[in-house]
Amino acid sequence: GKAGGADGAAPRQREASEEAAQREEEQEDDGDEDLRDGGVPFFVNRGGLPVNEPTWERMWRHVAKIHPEGDKVAQRIRGATDLPKIPIPSVPAFQLSTPIPERLEAIQRYIRELQYNHTGTQFFEIKKSRPLTGLMDLAKEMTKEALPIKCLEAVILGIYLTNNMTTLERFPISFKTHFSGNYFRHIVLGVNFGGRYGALGISRREELMYKTPTFRTLSELVFDFEEAYRRCWHTLKKVKLGQYVSHDPHSVEQIEWKHSILDVEKLGREDFRKELERHARDMRLKISKGAGPPSPTKDRKKDVSSPQRGQSSPHRRNSRGERRPSGEKKPADSKAMPDLNGYQIRV
């Protein structure tokens, strides 16, 4: 009850603030409304498509607030009767003989053609906790609607468009950086082909998205992103790395977004490199043991009914359990950090 008086107040307050921090983390994981990145809020369209009236009006109010020309730009566009028709990019199709690096280049070109979304309203709601099959349905919708996208949407799209490339492994890489008193978040899809690393994605900055799969190690790839950030005067604070994502578009597993959470400053250069290589080893081991994401199997394809969903819950619990040992090794790094699905660099 209410007994306990002042003695219990401090622990309760502490618990409350920890709960609030946890809630904030979960909200940001889900791409929640009015997220802030670098001090700038952005909204998420939760009403699906076509965009409903309240979301549409909120978007234009927000555009007027964040655009240098304010209301004028909104009035000019909304009042125009002769806006040019925007071409819809066609989804790349490949012949079996097309080499993987060429396919990745075409996929990146397609993602770029959709264009970066500068409106401050993300058009597709991406809940990171959704099973892969649901996220793949969403990616299909993105290709139909061909609307501008932000970095988290580009990652989901990248997974969808590379699902049939079973010799290519995909995993999320999230960045948290600091610039001019604010924190910024960004995410790309890491890829591994023939032991070489690269990335797919979208950003306002050319050097913070596509990387050809030519990096010999995971640390070389991440250091390349860090250097690109440095050129924009951003300091890399944290890197979160997920596990390889299943190639089965009907999988009811969740994407593991943050198997390793690395605090760049606490680790120091050499330990940071070692932890990146340890993560790369973890991913390789999971695949070689067959514990990693399976390529589509006949059984899985035949039956993705509700019993299958029920059976999948223990797997998800296991994968969370597997994450704990790495957290125990470096407890300082496991503190809850907001996820990286917001605006990227703003300089």
From TrEMBL:
Residues 12-24, 319-333 have a biased composition (Basic and acidic residues). This is Vasohibin-1. It comes from Alligator sinensis (Chinese alligator). The active site is at C151, H186, S203. The gene is VASH1. One of its GO terms (biological process) is regulation of angiogenesis. PANTHER family: TUBULINYL-TYR CARBOXYPEPTIDASE 1, VASOHIBIN-1-LIKE ISOFORM X2. Residues 25-35 have a biased composition (Acidic residues). GO terms for cellular component: cytoplasm. InterPro entries: VASH1. Residues 1-43, 283-347 are annotated as: Disordered.
